[in-house]
Amino acid sequence: MKWLALNHLLALGLASAACAAWAQSSAPAATAPLDPALLARVREMAQQAAQAGVAELPGARVQLELGTLDARLRLAPCAQVQPYVPPNQRMWGRARIGLRCAQGAAWNVSLPVTVKVFAPALVLTQSLPAGTALEAAHLELKDVDVASDRSPALMQLEQALGRPLARDMNAGDTLHRASLRSRQWFAAGDTVRLVAQGAGYSVSGEAQALGPGLEGQAVRLRTESGRIVSALPVAPRQAEITP
């Protein structure tokens, strides 16, 4: 009986080892490092897309850092990998480049890309508590990575002077739109000058605010004809509609 039990255990062990060997041989190979030529194409594509996205920032310097594919991926061999920029994606901050197999297997993955954009922006010269109304002595222009935050970096003193900080900030911190408390340009019920602008035209009239006019936040207004529209507060008792 002991010999039978021993033989049974040996058989089970051999079967398990065979199954493991079969599974290892049949599983897709681990993802190999990306070909240097492909990485060069990816970098060139990302650089071009990033440069196009900073056209409004003369003199801005773009710096790219390519990430790596997820180590858990198991991709079938591919004769031709095609890189592409995903639709509606801006090459700014944390982004990605798509990689699809165009010849062979059917897979599509993303390669992470960090896009740094260095340009002159306002930074604090000293640590300040929340609520501090900013003065010229509190600020200076420095070359910083303006893509490090989703909120736009402020680049002109006029955008910050007299505005209170929304949170405590340290010396050297970059000033972003979200760093400042929103200005209220008008209150609910106020009569507001409403301007509609587009290509080659500008129309203005009066409307009644149906909510507070906070900077950067759309507000509903009732026009003189009774129509309800959405506009962006831009100045004291003034809002704009743009296409």
Features:
alpha+beta, 5-stranded antiparallel β-sheet, 2 helices, 18% helix, 36% strand, disordered N terminus
Q: In brief, what are we looking at here?
A:
The chain is an alpha+beta fold. It is built from 2 helices and 12 strands, in the order ααββββββββββββ.
Report on the structure:
By secondary structure, the chain is of the alpha+beta class. The protein has two helices and twelve strands; from the N terminus they run ααββββββββββββ. The strands form three sheets. Strands 1, 2, 3, 4 and 5 form a five-stranded antiparallel sheet that branches. Strands 7-8-10-11-12 form a five-stranded mixed beta barrel. Strands 6-9 form a two-stranded antiparallel sheet. A hairpin with a 2-residue loop joins strand 11 and strand 12 (238-241). It is extended, with a radius of gyration of 29 Å. The N and C termini lie far apart (88 Å). Mean pLDDT is 86; it is low at 1-30.
Distinct helical segment count = 2
Mean pLDDT: 86
* Structure class: alpha+beta
| Largest sheet, strands/sense/barrel | 5 strands, antiparallel
Q: What share of the residues lie within helices?
A: 10-25%
Rg, alpha carbons: 29 Å
Order of helices and strands: HHEEEEEEEEEEEE
- The span between the termini is 88 Å
Topology:
Elements: H1 2-26, H2 36-53, E1 61-66, E2 78-84, E3 93-104, E4 108-124, E5 139-145, E6 184-186, E7 191-198, E8 201-209, E9 213-214, E10 219-223, E11 228-235, E12 238-241
Parallel strand pairs: 7-12
Antiparallel strand pairs: 1-4, 2-3, 3-4, 4-5, 6-9, 7-8, 8-10, 10-11, 11-12
